[in-house]
Amino acid sequence: MKTYSNITIHHPFSSSVQKEKYLLSYNGQYYEASHAIVELVEELQRYEEEKAAIEAYVRKKEGKYTPEQVREVIEKFIDPIFRAVPKKRSFLYEKELFSAGAIDRFSDTFRFLFHKAYMMVVLVGMLALDAWFFFTTSDLLLFNNKVNIYMVAGLLVFMFASSFFHELGHASACKYFGVRHGGIGFGVYLNFPVLYTDVTEVWKLNRAQRCVVNLAGVYFQSYWLIALLVAFLITGNDILRYLILIMNLGFVMTLNPFFKFDGYWIASDLLGVPNLRQRSLELLSYLYRLVRRKPIDKKPYLLQIRPLEKYGLLAYSVVVNAFMGFYFCYVIPMFLYRFVQTFPDAVNELILYLSNRMVPPFALLRNISMQLIFLALIGYLVYRTITSFTKRYAKKQ
């Protein structure tokens, strides 16, 4: 049963569109809506009978629309809200590890760290120390071949702990700005294992606040990085150098705007374009239909936003689609080609070491294990893609 009173109308949505948009929410999902749609929802919430609400809306608009036209608008733009299936995240697999209640105490305690003064001092200090590290450290990328299993286990524990602290940063930022956060979980995005935090309610915030929430994970990890950099400055320990490099590599991964990590959401908020990836594909579809002279259902988002953001979205669309094409059409095929060429030799070498009762070098074990993990994730990606297409095809039949 449709209950219009269950639709929540929020303040104007912070985006880069030329005409003001509002934010509606229902059943944990958020929707952009024009001022006219919001006015119609308000009338539907005011009256018990839909017919009376439509008549009131027609009177309010002084006969600009007929009751039939208003009814069509309700069926096209409002009724689908009640039929919407909760959207799944962009993960091939996901599992909540810690509930929102389990991390509430931490996020409540440490939300004060998002005061502007704290953030500026920490981020500037981290960048200065990090720059010093990269410019002054000799043998920066030299790795010791005497790495043992205990060191590897320690590095893995460090990476998990650092990533978990990263997610606590997102949760704490939500609390600072007065919105709720969900739990922290584990997921597989494309062929990357990741931790995630449910921060759906950030859509209630303005663009600048959303950017802070999206940057919050890296900001929290900056405290760890500063401690490691200071310790390395004092001791020059190689293990600390490895950890610093791992954290910086993690920053590069999470801040890249091409995959749906933090950098993607930061780019989305800087441009003021929600569903940024979808909008970039929407532009390609629009250009394809324009060239082929096919009917165009709706104007792409690119043509609805302000000029500065318009150029930004255009540049992003070109670069991200080129990058994704490069990743799927070159990086993955090249990995598979090299896997076929080199993996059998690596396995033979491993067998040779074991048959002679010798401990295989760490580099060999690392290469074999990483190739197998990457191959397994690619296989899972292909499997989920095929099953998704199969289900869609079955629904159409």
TrEMBL record:
Q: Does the keyword Transmembrane apply?
A: yes
Q: Which UniProt keywords apply?
A: Coiled coil, Membrane, Transmembrane, Transmembrane helix
Give the transmembrane region(s): 117-135, 147-165, 212-234, 240-259, 313-336, 363-383
* Coiled coil spans: 30-64
Keyword match Lipid biosynthesis? no
What name does the UniProt record give this protein? Peptidase M50
Q: What is the lineage of its organism?
A: Bacteria, Pseudomonadati, Bacteroidota, Bacteroidia, Bacteroidales
